[in-house]
Each structure stands twice: as C-alpha cells, then as structure tokens.
Design a protein that fits this description.
It contains five helices and five strands; from the N terminus they run αβββαββααα. With 206 residues, it is an alpha+beta fold. It has a five-stranded antiparallel beta sheet with strand order 1-2-3-5-4.
C-alpha cells in the first residue's frame, strides 16, 4: 500500500474505574449490603423470591418491563469468581429459576439477556433483561441507560410481581417453557453465610 501509514498502537487512557474496584476490601461500604433483604420492597425493586443464595427483585427503574435483578445475599461478595463451587451452583440455579419465570410470564419473548457486569456497584448481582418482540436492536444488548433512566409503571410492577412470585413459588409452572425443571432453589436449605472464599435501546411493553 504505497504511501499509506500503518497506524500505531492507541495510547492507553487513564483508568476511570472506581477506586473501590481497584482495591476491593470487605469493609468498604456497599449500597446493596445496606438493603434490608427481609423486606418485601427495597425501593429499587419488589421482592419476587427470597432464595438460599440470592433474592430476585422486579426492578423499578428503566423502560424494559420485566427487568429483574438477582442480588447475592450471603454476605458481601464483589465478583462471581469469589464464590465456592457450591455457592456458584446455588446462585446460578436461582438466577436460572428467575429467568424461567420471566420467560413463562412474558410470552412470546424471543430472548433473555443475562448480565453480570461488575461495573458500578461492587456487590454480586445478575441483570435479567427480557427482549420483547417490539424491542429494537435485537442484534445487540439494550443500552444500559434504558435500564437505569426513567421509572416503570407502578401498576405494571405490582401486577407483574404477583404473577412472577406465583411462578417462582411453583417450579413446575415453567415446565411448558423449557420442557424440564430445575430443583427448587429456595426452601429450608442453609445459606452459605459469611463471605465467599470456601452488568441500543429497549421500550416497555404494555
């Protein structure tokens, strides 16, 4: 390529990662740990199911109806990779159970995005984002601004929460969606208490 210049490497940009992520420590304040996991409403969202490893909440923010967040409740943990094998299996089973309930309630639904972003709040949580048939940009994830800005219609929130709770209370209720069921993730099992060591556009659908 005569006369062309081969571009050099791009200069590194200064890190803008929050300091709490650069040096995570167990005594740091945590907005999620400060929530009352026994409450039916934590402000951010309505409790759908209190699990052994995490709680599922129907989120109030954003424009995507049915946006659910599963928050780890077994002590402060920042990353999925901090979990033991047993904790990982338990938490992801509960995330999957919430996803199946979402798929059962919002049918037909062509897709469900599940994200563990670890970008802002250093506490383990999974985002479950329904991709409704009317949503644009099906070839890429929805812009996070559409999950964070604005607020869900409270009437929809209350009605959807009731329906999702019923589905999560009966694991067999989602069998028609997946052709199989996972073992119940809640119940009388003991929580692995303490710290581990053993996160386009989308429009709400009315």
């Amino acid at each position: 390529m005569c006369g062309s210049q081969v571009p050099g490497p791009r200069p590194l940009e200064a890190s803008t990662w929050p300091e709490r992520y650069a040096e995570p420590h167990q005594d740091a304040s945590c907005a999620m740990c400060e929530k009352d996991f026994a409450a039916p409403d934590i402000g951010w969202g309505l409790l759908l199911r209190r699990g052994v490893y995490g709680n599922a909440y129907l989120w109030r923010s954003g424009r995507v109806r049915g946006y659910v967040v599963v928050m780890w409740t077994g002590g402060h943990v920042a990353r999925l990779t901090d979990l033991t094998a047993r904790q990982l299996a338990g938490f992801m089973t509960e995330v999957t159970s919430a996803g199946r309930a979402i798929e059962a309630h919002y049918r037909p639904m062509p897709g469900l995005n599940v994200s563990l972003l670890e970008n802002d709040i250093p506490h383990l949580h999974a985002h479950l984002i329904p991709r409704h048939p009317t949503a644009p940009t099906p070839d890429r994830p929805p812009a996070f601004a559409h999950l964070d800005r604005d607020r869900q219609d409270e009437t929809h929130i209350q009605a959807d929460a009731a329906a999702l709770r019923a589905l999560l209370a009966d694991p067999g209720a989602t069998e028609a969606v997946v052709g199989d069921t996972l073992p119940p993730s809640g119940g009388s099992g003991s929580r692995d208490a303490g710290r581990a060591g053993d996160e386009g556009s989308e429009e709400a659908v009315v």
